[in-house]
Amino acid sequence: MFPTSTFSSLHSTNVTPTPSLSYLSTSSLSSSSSTSSSSSSPSSSLSLLQSSCLHRRHLRSFCAFGDTQLRIDPKSKGLKVTCSVGSEPLKVMISGAPASGKGTQCELIVQKFGLVHISTGDLLRAEVSSGTEIGNKAKEFMNAGRLVPDEIVTAMVMTRLSRQDAKEKGWLLDGYPRSFSQAQSLEELKIRPDVYIVLDVPDEILVNRCIGRRLDPVTGKIYHLKNFPPETEEIKSRLVIRRDDTEEKVKSRLEIYKKNAEAISSTYSNIVKKINGNRPKEEIFKEIESLLLQVQKDRVKMMKPGNIIPEIKNKKNQDNWRGIPTKLNNIPHSREIRKYFYTDVLEATQRAINDGRTRLKVEINIPELNPEMDVYRIGTLMELVRVLALSFADDGKHVKVCVQGSMGEGALIGMPLQLAGTRQILEFMDWGDYGAMGNFIKIGSVGSKEVDEQDDIFVIVAPQNAVGNCIIDDLKAMTDAAGNRPVILINPRLKDLPGSSGVMQTMGRDKRLEYAASFENCYFFRLLYYAGTQYPIMGALRMSFPYRYELYKRVDEPSGKEKYVILSTFPERPDTDEVNDAFLGKPRNKTKEASGIW
Question: Is 213 helix (H, G, I), strand (E, B) or coil?
């Protein structure tokens, strides 16, 4: 039963003779080669254009859920990832400007994953050479120097996708769609890839690659005068420049490519993955391979019985929430309790990012995550960070996990004790077998120099000021450099800590506090105790984006068990008086008097 005395202020931690309710202090966390489109015998017909219902039936058959299997093919070099009949295979689109290296990466993807490589250029040549109805129609446009209409190209792609090998092995759609209308046609027919890969290469590099290319008219092989020179002088003497490889035409093609790429970007914005294509082909493929393996891994998880498609799951998260776990003062926390909070934080953070929020903070305060308690566990903090980073990496995002380094000079040099050794722990943690660490997850410090162009999301581990030193300047420089990319602070402690001169408390304090307040909570959880105590737990305050703050009271049951009963909800974080009033049953709109000890 609650005493009827006045409760303490939100930030009070002083022991008072009169028991009063207090928030827990801020904390940290612990703890085969494919069947090529050109070699397949075309059997398409213009009647396919009027058979969209048939297309939809074909493509829906691609989406039958089953157990994805990974097998080792003893005849191939290394591991070959394939899908058994009845499961949903990989579906990949790849795009890149002329000379981006797309053809090379397609060959490597097909060799590794056994996907059916579908190129619209190959399809057109096959249809024309075979004299099919679609081929003859396309030839009329090509001979007239006109672009082949979208409906003809889409019909050819649909026909190829409906073949049995594409259904069983999966497909790699190369350079298609090229326009918004083509992308929308595929969307209407329910054709959507698991991932849309874009090879990103600077224009000047692309131009140099193109104008240095040479064609061997005898073998059809492409060489480059600098990067891939011919093997003999005889071959070199007969090389010719392709008509499209002049600087003027290359720049024109680049502009067309950019315009088309921009037009279809909105269709695939949530699955696009940009890959730095200005590297050796082996490095590029290593990143692509890691990405596709993660898609496979995620597919395996999703196919397990009882798993829910993420979009559906997120809509049901709040309705299916099981309530606050009990026995939170039992230390160490059970694996189930830790997993509960990791999942709760992850789902709230994902919702906030999907809603376009970019400056976020997570504040979670349970005993293992409260550095002011002797049961604080740095491992629990690291586990939470790992769950967040791996989840974002599974979505193909590059994640930079940042831990602040030493600050200050002379006698004040060093870092907060809470963070000592954190970076080493992160580096030696188990990050899985799919190459996430190093490819999609990297560890850095706090500052603008840590922001790389390929980084998508930044997770900053417990940023905090040290005595006489302030992390906010480095943090602000980093967020400025990050631009509109999400930055997530995990249990920040950004209040001023005075130095011996007291200067830090006064100079620029307003600006520092304003910046710290610019991060919005995507998740908040704090246990409530009587002021000056850490036992028993009296209640909890929870917020999970985008829902309201929920105030709970812990209730002992006759059976000896306990439960949390909701008392009230708030659109914004309640102050101490609002919490006190809710526990005492006072009306919400009653005029408050100052209470507590500050």
Answer: strand
Contacts 24+ apart (CB under 8 A), 393-398: 393/294, 393/436, 393/440, 393/441, 394/294, 394/297, 394/298, 396/195, 396/271, 396/273, 396/291, 396/294, 396/295, 396/440, 397/440, 397/456, 397/457, 398/440, 398/441, 398/442, 398/454, 398/455, 398/456, 398/457
- Is the bond leading into 229 cis (omega within 30 degrees of zero)? no
- By the 8 A CB rule, do 107 and 140 touch? no
Return the bridge partners of 93, or none. 173, 196
Q: Beta partners for 530?
A: 21
Q: What is the mean pLDDT of each run of 10 residues along the chain (598 residues)?
A: 34 34 37 36 37 35 34 39 54 90 91 92 84 84 77 86 89 88 84 90 88 86 84 90 81 85 79 88 92 80 48 43 76 84 91 89 86 72 90 87 67 53 78 79 88 90 74 86 91 68 55 83 90 80 91 87 87 88 75 39
Residue 550: Cβ-neighbour burial (10 angstroms; 0-12, 13-18, 19+): buried
Gap between the Cα atoms of 534 and 23, Å rounded? 10
Task: Check: CB of residue 549 under 8 Å from CB of residue 572.
Answer: yes
Among the listed residues 242, 316, 327, 592, the single catalytic one is: 242
Question: Cα-flanking dihedrals φ and ψ of residue 5, to 5°?
Answer: -80, 170
**Residue 359 annotated among the catalytic residues of the structure:** no
Do you know the residue count of the chain?
598
Q: For residues 432 and 394, what is the distance between their CA atoms, to the nearest angstrom?
A: 11
Question: Which burial class, exposed, middle or buried, applies to 249 when counting CB atoms under 10 A from its CB (0-12, 13-18, 19+)?
Answer: middle
Residue in the block written with tokens 């996708």: 161
Catalytic residue among 91, 160, 169, 213: 213
**Helical H runs in 229-328?**
233-238, 247-265, 281-303, 310-316
CA distance 104 to 89: 22
Beta strands in 300-372 (DSSP E): 359-365
Which of 91, 102, 112, 397 is labelled catalytic?
102
Catalytic site residue from 178, 377, 386, 397: 178
Annotated catalytic residue 213: yes
